[in-house]
């Protein structure tokens, strides 16, 4: 049998290129353009005057009005909103990581009664709409002094974002063998020491993914923030943008500039951490 015939009978590798390759890349390019188009249109709108925006809403700006960003920054109170959002988002992400990490560790490694029932409870809780809890929460938070405080809002975020993060970290922790923890216990380490010094470093990619998801949700959340925060000095950036948009004289170019300012921190964070985010999410097995 000739060498050419032998090569022709070899099975094609799964990772080898095929005729569908260019079509896949074309589809990915189209999806990228579809995802980036709203941001590009928003950027063009932010650089136009109100008159130009009404006559040419989708085209390029004739004369870029860069001062719209400075005007929107000052008039919309974006500095105060971004500072408040940074505090709320950081506290939410750190709290969710600690709560969900400890809960996932207890469900997988400790002798917790009825772990299947707890998992089902977490699944049900993540499916419940937020509107069911607004009336009792407003009453309880008013009585306890947590209403109109950032800490009260962060507590609610911990409660609603921790169940999904717990399931995320649980699926990640199941794939890690418990040998390291057993060795640490033999050396006399307690459960807290085992969790913080052994388990947490091992599941760090999953913890980072859970923290990013909780941070993005807290940054973009609107309903709870507008319900539980009334002080103008404590409003997150999403409510600052909403208040600016609801002004008496709406300048859509300035609103677009303020919206782009709000979106930039999220875009920058995702671009910096996108590889770790995707790797951590895929390694949990929930992406399958």
UniProtKB/TrEMBL annotation:
The record describes its membrane topology as:
Multi-pass membrane protein
Where does the signal peptide begin and end? none
List the GO biological process terms. transmembrane transport
Compartments, record wording: Cell membrane
Q: Which GO terms describe its cellular component?
A: plasma membrane
Q: Which CDD domains match?
A: TM_PBP2
TM ranges: 21-47, 86-108, 120-142, 154-173, 194-219, 253-273
Keywords, comma-separated and alphabetical: Cell membrane, Membrane, Transmembrane, Transmembrane helix, Transport
The yes or no answer to whether the keyword Membrane is present is: yes
The segment(s) forming the ABC transmembrane type-1 domain are 82-273
SUPFAM superfamilies, alphabetically? MetI-like
- Similarity field: Belongs to the binding-protein-dependent transport system permease family.
Give the PANTHER family listed for this entry.
Answer: ABC TRANSPORTER PERMEASE PROTEIN MG189-RELATED, ABC TRANSPORTER PERMEASE PROTEIN MG189-RELATED-RELATED
Protein name in the entry: Raffinose/stachyose/melibiose transport system permease protein
């Amino acid at each position: 049998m000739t060498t050419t015939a032998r090569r022709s009978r070899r099975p094609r590798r799964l990772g080898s290129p095929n005729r569908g390759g260019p079509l896949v890349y074309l589809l990915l390019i189209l999806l990228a353009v579809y995802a980036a188009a709203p941001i590009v249109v928003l950027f063009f709108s932010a650089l136009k005057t109100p008159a130009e925006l009404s006559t040419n809403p989708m085209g390029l700006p004739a004369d870029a009005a860069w001062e719209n960003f400075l005007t929107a920054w000052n008039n919309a109170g974006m500095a105060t909103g971004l500072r408040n959002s940074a505090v709320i988002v950081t506290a939410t992400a750190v709290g969710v990581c600690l709560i969900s990490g400890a809960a996932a560790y207890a469900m997988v490694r400790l002798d917790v009664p009825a772990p299947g029932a707890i998992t089902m409870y977490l699944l049900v809780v993540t499916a419940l709409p937020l509107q069911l809890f607004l009336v009792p929460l407003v009453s309880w938070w008013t009585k306890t002094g947590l209403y109109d405080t950032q800490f009260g809002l962060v507590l609610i975020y911990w409660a609603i974002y921790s169940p999904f993060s717990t399931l995320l970290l649980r699926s990640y922790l199941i794939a890690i063998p418990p040998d390291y923890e057993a060795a640490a216990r033999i050396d006399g380490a307690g459960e807290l020491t085992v969790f913080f010094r052994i388990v947490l470093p091992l599941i760090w990619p999953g913890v980072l993914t859970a923290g990013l998801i909780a941070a993005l949700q807290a940054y973009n959340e609107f309903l709870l923030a507008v319900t539980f925060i009334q002080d103008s000095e404590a409003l997150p950036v999403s409510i600052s943008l909403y208040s600016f948009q609801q002004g008496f004289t709406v300048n859509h170019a300035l609103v677009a500039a303020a919206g782009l300012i709000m979106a930039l921190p999220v875009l920058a964070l995702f671009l910096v951490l996108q590889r770790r985010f995707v790797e951590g999410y895929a390694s949990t097995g929930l992406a399958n």
